[in-house]
């Protein structure tokens, strides 16, 4: 599953759609845990701890069965990637308790925008006017979704922006790791280090979950592992420029989940902000695809 395969664009598209549905499902479960639907409201630090714990168990089981060839890991890059990935995931779960899932998901599409901006000073990349324009468009959409003056909604959007910034910084480490190690090894080490960080962070807020909460935490970890596996598998069957746009379907799934479970529908501001962000992110993805083939990161 994690090895190169014969090109199959149709299957790659289906796998990416599945990955987006699974990823949106993790945010839905995090919102249920954080808003007290399944018991006393759970702290985002404990939710992200459960995400890394159960994702590691799932990926560890796959690693044990497949026994991939392991190379010497670059622990410094892995540590940096895992730290920012943990921060991004935790902030995303926190944001989901304050704002609609559609808003949080739309803002998460700023990850590559922040990654591109940070690549200029950190990796020495040159960015042309089209890519800067795409970034500016996406950021305008984010400003729309912050809804200045709306209190809790604006605060949730700021948390989501912090998540996008952390995950955009993670992209810098992923680019440095690209080609050095196999994807299954990267996933396993990322979740292992992430679990260590999450365990240290959760100590002060830990409380014993009830049965429903344990099941939801397990669901978050397993769904995220499944999303990562589907996305990596899709990347083995089609070019990144073809696969990446299908992941934007996560916004559709998030909207459907929020409406079905929490009876929350996006309003005009949510739709406008999402359209602007998708326009900028889509333009950036199109431009990146024309510049050179590349592999976007595995979904967090």
Automatic annotation (TrEMBL):
<feature type="transmembrane region" description="Helical">
    <location>
        <begin position="78"/>
        <end position="99"/>
    </location>
</feature>
<keyword id="KW-0472">Membrane</keyword>
<keyword id="KW-0812">Transmembrane</keyword>
<feature type="transmembrane region" description="Helical">
    <location>
        <begin position="214"/>
        <end position="235"/>
    </location>
</feature>
<feature type="transmembrane region" description="Helical">
    <location>
        <begin position="152"/>
        <end position="174"/>
    </location>
</feature>
<dbReference type="InterPro" id="IPR037185">
    <property type="entry name" value="EmrE-like"/>
</dbReference>
<feature type="domain" description="EamA">
    <location>
        <begin position="12"/>
        <end position="146"/>
    </location>
</feature>
<dbReference type="InterPro" id="IPR000620">
    <property type="entry name" value="EamA_dom"/>
</dbReference>
<protein>
    <submittedName>
        <fullName>Riboflavin transporter</fullName>
    </submittedName>
</protein>
<feature type="transmembrane region" description="Helical">
    <location>
        <begin position="105"/>
        <end position="123"/>
    </location>
</feature>
<dbReference type="Pfam" id="PF00892">
    <property type="entry name" value="EamA"/>
</dbReference>
<dbReference type="GO" id="GO:0016020">
    <property type="term" value="C:membrane"/>
</dbReference>
<comment type="similarity">
    <text>Belongs to the drug/metabolite transporter (DMT) superfamily. 10 TMS drug/metabolite exporter (DME) (TC 2.A.7.3) family.</text>
</comment>
<feature type="transmembrane region" description="Helical">
    <location>
        <begin position="268"/>
        <end position="286"/>
    </location>
</feature>
<feature type="signal peptide">
    <location>
        <begin position="1"/>
        <end position="23"/>
    </location>
</feature>
<feature type="transmembrane region" description="Helical">
    <location>
        <begin position="130"/>
        <end position="146"/>
    </location>
</feature>
<feature type="transmembrane region" description="Helical">
    <location>
        <begin position="47"/>
        <end position="66"/>
    </location>
</feature>
<keyword id="KW-0732">Signal</keyword>
<keyword id="KW-1133">Transmembrane helix</keyword>
<feature type="domain" description="EamA">
    <location>
        <begin position="155"/>
        <end position="284"/>
    </location>
</feature>
<feature type="transmembrane region" description="Helical">
    <location>
        <begin position="242"/>
        <end position="262"/>
    </location>
</feature>
<feature type="transmembrane region" description="Helical">
    <location>
        <begin position="186"/>
        <end position="208"/>
    </location>
</feature>
């Amino acid at each position: 599953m994690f090895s190169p395969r014969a090109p199959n664009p149709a299957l790659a598209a289906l796998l990416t759609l599945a990955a987006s549905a699974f990823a949106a499902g993790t945010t839905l479960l995090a919102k249920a845990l954080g808003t007290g639907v399944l018991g006393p409201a759970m702290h985002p630090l404990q939710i992200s701890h459960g995400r890394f714990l159960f994702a590691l168990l799932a990926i560890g089981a796959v690693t044990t069965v497949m026994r991939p060839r392991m190379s010497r890991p670059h622990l410094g890059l892995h540590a940096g990637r895992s730290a920012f990935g943990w921060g991004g995931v935790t902030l995303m779960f926190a944001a989901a308790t304050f704002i609609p899932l559609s808003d949080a998901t739309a803002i998460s599409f700023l990850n590559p925008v922040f990654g591109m901006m940070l690549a200029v000073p950190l990796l020495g990349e040159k960015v042309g006017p089209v890519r800067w324009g795409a970034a500016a468009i996406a950021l305008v959409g984010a400003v729309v979704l912050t809804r200045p003056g709306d209190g809790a909604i604006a605060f949730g959007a700021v948390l989501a922006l912090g998540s996008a910034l952390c995950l955009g910084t993670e992209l810098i480490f992923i680019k440095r790791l690209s080609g050095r190690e196999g994807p299954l090894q990267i996933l396993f080490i990322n979740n292992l280090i992430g679990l260590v960080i999450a365990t240290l962070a959760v100590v002060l807020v830990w409380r014993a979950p009830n049965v429903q909460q344990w099941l939801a935490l397990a669901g978050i970890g397993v769904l995220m592992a499944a999303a990562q596996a589907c996305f990596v598998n899709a990347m083995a069957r089609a070019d990144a420029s073809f696969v990446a746009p299908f992941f934007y379907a996560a916004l559709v799934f998030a909207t459907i989940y929020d409406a079905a479970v929490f009876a929350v529908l996006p309003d005009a501001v949510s739709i406008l902000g999402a359209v602007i962000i998708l326009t900028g992110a889509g333009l950036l993805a199109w431009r990146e695809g024309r510049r050179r083939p590349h592999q976007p990161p595995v979904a967090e």
